[in-house]
Design goal:
The chain has 260 residues and is of the alpha+beta class. The chain starts with 10 loop residues before the first helix and ends in a 13-residue tail after the last helix.
Length: 260
């Protein structure tokens, strides 16, 4: 998978990538259908294969596109986390109600079996692992929700919020390899609409890069046309995680206001 350079928080690379209309069209195409091959994307643009590859490379360098190998194929996924970070830095304090509405519209339009998100956080693998698995810290960036349970393989975990009635979610730890990899099943329980979606899977992968960590979250085994509530909160969660670890501050997002 292509690595995203974290220099200057990646903001310069994001703006450079978004400045070109062709690259914006590529992101629109991945927004329409995530997980496409180079050949599939090439068919939708009147340019050479090399030209499409060049634009994709710039999008990958900016962290706006991430790739995964599936057999012999290389699939490209839209990663909205860098755009969310730009939003959190400049937009949210002025236009949160309007932007949140547009974000919800985006989630309603997305349909996919797999979502991939990545971010760079200036911390150690051990501290990042602790933030993900520590109950009190988890609430700082996960909309006030705690994740309680047995952090061993086969152990059950439960998601709760002190201002909500009953369980919000539950799952089982499939792989627990600190501080590198955590794989869990996920069953959403906060409403009848999401309960109907059944079980999906969330994988956390931590890779040290200098004085930072490259964190990739893959949410897969989703039903096609799954309810966007299941996976739509990840950009807010990951930007909140980065903010908490690097500054000690709690980031206000639409998700965190749910039980406010």
């Amino acid at each position: 998978m292509t690595k995203w350079s974290p220099k200057v928080d990646g903001v310069d690379e994001v703006f450079k990538a978004l400045a070109d209309p062709t690259r914006r069209e590529l992101l629109d195409e991945l927004f329409r259908q995530d997980g496409q091959t180079l050949s599939a994307l090439e068919e939708r643009f009147e340019m050479t294969r090399f030209g499409v590859m060049k634009h994709l490379k710039l999008l990958e360098d900016a962290g706006l596109v991430v790739t995964r190998r599936r057999g012999r194929e290389k699939l490209h996924f839209l990663n909205p986390v860098p755009i969310r970070l730009v939003h959190d830095r400049w937009v949210s304090k002025y236009a949160e109600p309007w932007v949140a509405g547009l974000t919800e519209l985006k989630h309603e339009l997305e349909r996919t079996m797999e979502k991939v998100f990545e971010i760079y956080i200036r911390t150690t693998p051990e501290r990042l692992w602790e933030a993900i698995t520590d109950n009190e810290t988890r609430a700082k960036f996960h909309f006030g929700n705690t994740l309680e349970g047995d952090w061993t393989e086969g152990g059950r975990v439960e998601m709760r919020n002190p201002k909500a009635d009953g369980l919000l979610g539950e799952g089982v730890n499939l792989v627990v390899d600190p501080p590198h990899r955590l794989v869990q099943t996920m069953v959403a329980l906060w409403g009848d609409d999401v309960k109907a979606e059944g079980t999906s899977r969330v994988t956390w992968e931590i890779e040290p890069v200098g004085d930072s960590c490259h964190l990739t979250v893959t949410h897969d085994q989703l039903r096609e046309d799954a309810n966007p509530q299941i996976y739509g909160g990840w950009p807010m969660i990951l930007s909140g995680l980065k903010t908490w670890i690097e500054t000690g501050e709690v980031l206000t997002t639409p998700g965190s206001l749910m039980y406010g």
